Amino acid sequence: MNPQLRQTLVTLAAAAVAIWLGFKVAEGSYLLPSVAATIAVGAGLTRLFRLPFDVILTGMVIFGYLAGNRGFAQLMPAPGVPLFPAEAVLLVAGSWRCIRWAFARRLPFSHDRLELIVLAWLVAGSVRFGFDLPRHGFLAIRDFATVYYAAFFFLVLDMARDARARRWLLGSLIAGLLALPVTFGLSELFPRFFQTVLVIHQAPVIFFKGDLAFTFLGVGSLLVFFMGQSAARVWSLALAMGMALWILASNNRAALLGVAGAAGLLLLAGKWRYPFTLGATSALAALALAGMATVGNSSWADAKLQGAADRFHSIVDFSGQGSYMSGDSYYKGHNNRFRAIWWKNVVMETWSSNPLLGLGFGHDMADAFIREYYPEAADDEFLARSPHNIFITIFGRMGLIGSGVWLGFCGILIIRTWRSLREPEIGLPQALWCSLWVLLISATFGVVLEGPMGAVVFWSILGLAQASTLDLQSDQNTGDKIEE
Q1: Which helix (H) or strand (E) holds 296?
Q2: Cα–Cα 20 to 30 A to 157, which of 60, 169, 209, 309?
Q3: In sequence order, what are the residues at sequence separation of 6 or more whose Cβ sits closer than 8 angstroms to the Cβ of residue 272?
Q4: 8 Å CB contact between 37 and 18
Q5: Rounded to whole angstroms, how far apart are CA atoms 440 and 344?
């Protein structure tokens, strides 16, 4: 066929499709236009970056959960079609990777202990889920997400074995963390715009779950701190400490404990640069506030200092009976009692009903808690399903068996993190391992790994950390062979 004729026919066909899709959008039908737009953008990016579409899609979703958070997590191709971003990646990228693994006649995991324990986690959860699905239906699927998001570990790990794909995924992660302060800050300053104007299907595109936003700021503080090199060192240090100070100024104690835990690991390993910089920056900020409160007689500075003191006090107020003076910390005691009573009820109910296998996915773990803590509340007034502690959630859903697998995973994770920190130089690979503890510690006091916003980021970082470690070990083995 004549090349000019072929180009004309393609142009006409594309114009016809564009007009048809335009009519669909005008009618309020977004499913096919969304699919067409995704394919078009994916094709363009695939050609531009010369990367597989599933790698590009995974990177975009990681970026979306960081920059758009809860708003991005609720996006669907069409109303009533429960295909959220994480599930779309698992469907598209997971199917494609399974085909590749089948043709290559290889398994998606090796005999590495970390990979085997994550596989055991998926298997144990799937067996438990098989018994719960017929009884609880969609609720079981919703709760099972705590387990099946771990599939992102194998997806990202397999993708990241290729150096170019790893750079794309790591770049998407860093880009999302850099965009987070901007989108989060603007959404706090202009909530009306983000909740009523920047919407799709009446749902905001960017909407933050506060505790997760601060947890991600903690992750960003670590990764950005170790990212800068030479000339970029000054701005990366300033941005990293800015993120940390934002957490200190907030009411979020879980993120604060997560950053403190990661800094503690670095300090125990003799890597003092981040902990020292964090401590010095915090001390200078406290001195500045104290000076403003005493010399400048600033009520704002005095309130900030009192709020920080109350937050630190509330961390060790296990009974929740403490009294707090600052206006932004008055509810901390209530918050502690809320968690302690819910945790106690879940543990007691699980232990008395089915300690070995747990209560299962789909079971309402808030029922006994509501009767004790909110005796006058109606059932439909309390919508939370997680007791704000990933360890309690796992014990309640999967019993001692699931908890045993999860504790085994945490044990291997701490060993891998410690080994990475024993390297002579600390860079992004080591920072990835440390950042996992910001998320995991925060998940001990909030809802982080039970939903896609936190879980996809956690398991993706784990895949990148594992791939970076394996790549480093491969380079070291190659170097040893050359020396021999």
Answers
A1: none
A2: 209
A3: 266
A4: no
A5: 21
CB atoms within 10 A of CB 446: 26
One-letter amino acid at 254 equals: A
Give the up-direction half-sphere exposure of residue 371: CA atoms within 13 A in the CB hemisphere.
6
Say how many Å lie between the first and final Cα of the chain, rounded. 60
Q: How many Cβ atoms from other residues are within 10 Å of residue 175's Cβ?
A: 15
Measured CA angle at 115 (ends 114, 120), to 5 deg: 95
Q: Which helix (H) or strand (E) holds 177?
A: helix 163-189
323-347: buried (b, 16+ CB within 10 Å) or exposed (e) per residue?
ebebebbeebbebbbbbebbbebbe
What 3-state class would DSSP assign to 207? strand
Residue 77 CA to its chain's centroid (Å): 22
Q: How many Å separate Cα 378 from the centre of its chain?
A: 32
Size of the chain in residues? 484
Instruction: Give 104 or 17, the one with higher predicted confidence.
Output: 104
Percent of the chain exceeding pLDDT 70 equals: 78
Quick one: tokens of 285? 């900020």
CA pair distance 88, 97, nearest whole angstrom: 14
Is the separation of the CB atoms in 441 and 199 below 8 Å? Answer: no
The whole-angstrom separation of Cα 384 and Cα 380 is 10
Counts for the chain of helices (H) and strands (E), in that order = 20, 2
What's the pLDDT score for residue 339?
Answer: 84
pLDDT in tens, 81-127: 667 899 989 988 888 888 888 888 888 878 889 999 999 999 999 99
Please give the helix or strand (H or E) that residue 199 lies within, else none. strand 199-200
Question: Cα separation of 205 and 67, whole Å?
Answer: 10
